[in-house]
Specification:
InterPro entries: DUF3179
CATH class of the largest domain: Mainly Beta
Low-confidence stretches: 13-22
Number of helices: 11
Distance between the termini: 104 Å
Protein name: DUF3179 domain-containing protein
Largest sheet: 5 strands, mixed
Helix content: 25-40%
CATH topology of the largest domain: Rieske Iron-sulfur Protein
Strand order of the largest sheet: 1-14-3-2-13
Number of strands: 27
Transmembrane segments: 26-47, 67-84, 96-112
Structural class: alpha+beta
Radius of gyration: 29 Å
Shape: elongated
Strand content: 25-35%
Number of domains: 3
Mean pLDDT: 89
Organism: Mucilaginibacter rigui
Oligomer: single chain
CATH architecture of the largest domain: 3-layer Sandwich
Keywords: Membrane, Transmembrane, Transmembrane helix
Length: 418
């Protein structure tokens, strides 16, 4: 009987040894790492934390988001395994340390999955409501992005767009995705129809200080500043851009008196107020230590254009002092001008009937061409003179931070009126 009991004792010994070896503390620490670190890294890469936005990590961010949940499940499994197999054998001090760390770690989910999750920090509007000018509550001095299509005009205030980052809407039966990123000062409007299907987009976070949005069908990530698919099924694709204008509401209504105007969503009034002066005060004006306000900084405003694939940026402060500029690049003659409100800008090509025109502002502040002395309004239409009835062609231009324009247009030319 003694000999028969030896194998049983040996088996029990082996089982206990294996059980203890599998229940060693490293199971807990590995489980804790898988449970916590992927979410923290993911949140770090998609939010503007120090150093995070300078990393070329959009592909890492994309695939990390896809595996965060499986990694957490695996980490939770390891921790449960440890608790079942080895927690009771741990010292009292070890139990307290591990329990405390686990509670703190689980508390971090509040930051990674709620507080710093982009689509919760900047929510979609709960109500999208428009009003005509008679019933409008938006101040006329507000800067807006305006879109016209099929006889319908709509205005979207920047401080509302800046908080929500995007408004998914229709203008004259055209589906539109109106976007704005406050970290880049970049407004864009896109056609949200991809492969014949209208897509809903969600805000993912930011890379290189620019908002990243994801379409619902393919889960592709798109840069807001240029509409390019950076990673995912449609990588390399381009969203179709819809022309828009940026101006004060007063200037927009002057040209489009029947325009509809996006009204504030009462759920987000405090968030809109946080952007109250965003549309008119530059970072250099807030910096009391900077003596030369014309210094080019990363958040200096520029006016950007792309002509036949070539980008060019214009120093906003220099342009503001001149109020108009006749320029030419990439075989295109241009007129850039600002209205009296110093916020509404326009860009036109200046060839009319095969003849290049050059412009000036007369004593009353009205546009006039030097060749025929015809008068022109701010919509590019000649209102009197030899060229009355002719219209200048508009060129899409963007007011943007210098750091953003330079990053997304690395070969850009730059004008600063030296």
């Amino acid at each position: 009987m003694h000999n028969e009991s030896v194998p049983e004792v040996q088996n029990m010994y082996v089982k206990n040894t294996v059980s203890k070896s599998l229940a060693k503390p490293y199971l807990f620490w590995w489980g804790f790492a898988f449970l916590l670190l992927p979410g923290l890294v993911h949140a770090y890469l998609l939010m503007p934390f120090p150093g995070s936005q300078n990393l070329n990590a959009i592909t890492v961010s994309y695939y990390l988001e896809k595996i965060v949940t499986p990694l957490r499940v695996f980490g939770g499994f390891l921790i449960v395994w440890y608790v079942i197999a080895g927690f009771t054998n741990d010292s009292r001090r070890g139990k307290i340390i591990k329990t405390s760390i686990l509670v703190l770690g689980l508390g971090s989910f509040y930051f990674t999955d709620f507080k710093f999750q982009a689509e919760r920090m900047f929510e979609e509007p709960q109500t999208i409501k428009f009003a005509n000018f008679i019933h409008n509550s938006v101040p006329e001095s507000t800067v807006i992005i305006g879109i016209v299509n099929n006889g319908v005009a709509k205005a979207y205030p920047l401080n509302y767009l800046g908080y929500h980052h995007k408004i998914q809407d229709n203008v004259g039966n055209q589906a539109v995705l109106v976007t704005y990123c406050t970290m880049c000062r970049s407004g864009r409007a896109y056609n949200p129809i991809i492969n014949g299907i209208r897509q809903n987009f969600r805000l993912v976070g930011a890379r290189h200080y620019n908002a990243i949005i994801e379409d619902e069908a393919t889960k592709t990530w798109w840069y807001q500043a240029n509409g390019k698919a950076a990673v995912g099924q449609l990588k390399g694709s381009q969203l179709q851009e819809i022309p828009y204008e940026q101006s004060t509401l007063a200037a927009w209504i002057d040209k489009h008196p029947g325009s509809l105007i996006l009204q504030p969503d009462d759920h987000y009034l405090s968030d809109y107020n946080d952007l109250k002066n965003y549309d008119r005060v530059q970072a250099v004006d807030k910096d009391s230590t900077l003596k030369n306000k014309d210094s080019l900084m990363r958040k200096s405003w520029v006016l950007g254009l792309v002509i036949n694939g070539q980008a060019k940026a214009y120093d906003w402060r220099k342009l503001l002092k001149k109020r108009f500029l006749n320029d030419s690049f990439n075989q295109t003659n241009l007129l850039l001008t600002l209205e009296k409100d110093s916020l509404t800008y326009h860009s036109f090509t200046t060839s009319v009937n095969g003849k290049v025109l050059h412009f000036n502002l007369d004593k009353s502040g009205q546009l006039t061409d030097l060749e025929t002395a015809s008068l022109w309004n701010w919509d590019g239409l000649s209102t009197s003179g030899a060229l009355k009835g002719n219209r200048l062609s508009k060129v899409q231009s963007y007011q943007e931070y210098w750091h953003s324009w330079k990053y997304f247009h690395p070969n850009t030319l730059f004008w600063k009126d030296l």
